[in-house]
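hey so i finally got around to running the thing on that chain from the lab meeting. sorry it took forever, my laptop kept dying and i had to restart like 3 times. anyway pasting the input first so we r on the same page abt which one it is
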Amino acid sequence: MSDSTLPASRLRESLGYLNWLYNPFHGLDASGIYDLLATSSPTERGLYFNLGYWREATDLDAASDALAMLVGETAALDPEDRVLDCGFGFGDQDILWAQTLKPRHIVGLNITGSQVELARRRVAKLGLDGRIDLRLGSATDMPIDSASVDKVVAVECAFHFRTREVFLREAWRVLRPGGRLVLADIVPAPAVSGFPARLEQRISWRLVAGKFAIPPQNAYTRPTYHSKLAVSGFEQIRVESIREHVYAPLHRFLAEHPQTLARLHPMARLPARLALRFEATSVYRGLDYVLASAMKPQQLLGRSRRRP
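ok and heres what got predicted. didnt touch it at all, straight out
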């Protein structure tokens, strides 16, 4: 790369951030956002972009791993499972599951080509490409055979899907009878009383939804989430809020470790640092964070699930 090309690419990147974060009339789709973010993950050892699960974690890498493990353990991934991971990012969670929970095979779908390419290289470097198959593909139009996987998981990405409801129908289709769906997901918080709090709630949700490509059709709270899973045919449904172990402890960690933000692009640091000037209660007033799980009925075909 020539000396003139590098500054030009950095300028284009900076203009991309400027337009995305600071232009109220411009937004990006999910693939555009993650192409722009590239590998500027705030984690130190991995390339996660999730917010983390902070029940016991003391740093962002550990919290990111903990969220992935929460999803994997809730799905009860085991050595006989064929798993479908939708929206796998750079493959961090798939690598973690392959090394710890050891499912038989993981297939991943991701619409962001730049992430797919790097994730494949990371998996191959670790010698896991025989067990992890990462593909370019959509979670709402899955190039996956019907009734062919045991578990479908999505870590902090289903809010992007156009729409989540279409994804649920596709997840139902590809799951074997008795298969399980587990998602870590962001939805609007339950309505609060009092005008100031309601206003904060509305602003909080709209800022996140507008800049992180959340379709209006996905803006519903936990009870509706539960209903949509039920309408899709799932049983044993749980939609549990884990927000107290996500937003406030993340906010506190970033306030106490501002150097973490140095890993972000300079254009992204300003809004992040601005948010840290406010209480977490206000910043995240409009956001809930759920762990959703459900099962496709075992008796659907009148027999036990089959394995190839």
